[in-house]
Amino acid sequence: MVGQRAPNVAGLCGNLALRYVCAVLLTPAVDWSPNHRALRILDQRLLPAAEVVRDLYTIDDVVDAIKTLAVRGAPAIGVGAAIGLVVALRTVAGESGTHMRALLPEFAERLVASRPTAVNLAWAVGRMRACAERATDATLHHAMHAEADAIRLQDIAMCNAIGAHGLVLVPDGVCVLTHCNAGALATAGIGTALAPIYAAHTAGRRVHVYANETRPLLQGARLTAWELRRVGIAVTVLPDGAAASLLRSGAVDLVLVGADRIAANGDVANKIGTYSIALAARAHEIPFYVTAPWSTIDAHTADGATINIEFRDDSELGELPIGVGVWNPAFDVTPHTLVTGYLTDRGFVEPPFLASCVG
Ligand code: MRU
User: 171 phi and psi, to 5 degrees?
Assistant: First the structure.
């Protein structure tokens, strides 16, 4: 793993998607290194104190970065796994298709096992394996490289489409509550829940964002607040426990959150604490919208009851008295009955999500 300081200038951006990204992040959350030999990430463990870019070459480094949340957010870990798979195979096998194919199952399984809840990870690795099946040994490296880049570019486009469709939710002067980080740092593009906010900001609308701090790893306080302030969007951070009181106060017009997996019936797995916000939003009649790329819909999972919820290490809760137990789920499930609407890159959609419609 090679660490280096992020550059100070954004550089020239060739298309609208990249212009958005450059406006938010100087370095995308996940990308190729310039020579395409490494997965380049902005290390989110160190934000906002330091902007450190890392180039990852090996399967150990990529798996470790996903497990430790150096790269995080459902779409970003999907893109990171796709690029990471190609570069990790190349690091060991060169461009030998036979050697790459022999290593592929083990590397793919290690990536999928690194975080279980976000469907985008297994979805992206599944796409890479299907691509390898179609390729000959002679074309394998080239085909997998092209597929990983297609996943990255599609993610950028999906974020922009969510932003465009979601503009209708974000009129001038709106106040939005969000949870965790579903912004540029969680995708290859401008994010999901934050995409309509960036689109509205770009259109000259004033937006105020309340960001739950999102214990225990503080993705809201460290990451959402950081990326919104970079582009001059007003942001107020609150402790997670204050969200219900804020919603009751009348200060919030709507809630926008991301998703790690959306089941066929519309139940939503997202960062722990999302369910509490949905309950409070319903109690105070505030619209609660879930935003996600189409790839986050898992039509093969009937409802939230069977979603595999990741539990994380006790140490994330910090120092506790000896003998105290810890319950530390990384995600929770919000029942579809509490969701006002689902905003995707294909526009607003409604469950049930049938396997025949979800690619
Ligand atoms: O544990 P994290 O930080 O990866 O959790 C991220 C979330 O829960 C996001 O809301 C979700 O992945 C959607 S990101 C567009």
Answer: -75, 170
Say whether 60 is catalytic: no
Last residue within a domain, chosen from 138, 160, 182: 160
The residue ranges of the chain whose pLDDT is under 50 are 1-15, 17-18
Closest ligand 1 atom, CA of 179? 10
Q: Give the CATH number for residue 77.
A: 1.20.120.420
Residue nearest to atom 6 of ligand 1 (CA): 73
Domain final residue, candidates 160, 190, 207: 160
In whole angstroms, give the CA distance from residue 77 to residue 177.
24
Domain residue limits at 152: 2-160
Distance 310 CA to ligand 1 centre (A): 12
Query: Is the residue at 359 inside a domain?
Result: no
Q: How far is the CA of 337 from the centre of ligand 1 (A)?
A: 21
Q: Is residue 358 part of a domain?
A: no
How is the chain split among helix, strand and coil, in percent rounded to 5? 45, 20, 40
Report if pTM > 0.85. Answer: yes
Question: Cβ(180) to ligand 1 under 6 A?
Answer: yes
Token representation of residue 315: 């140490």
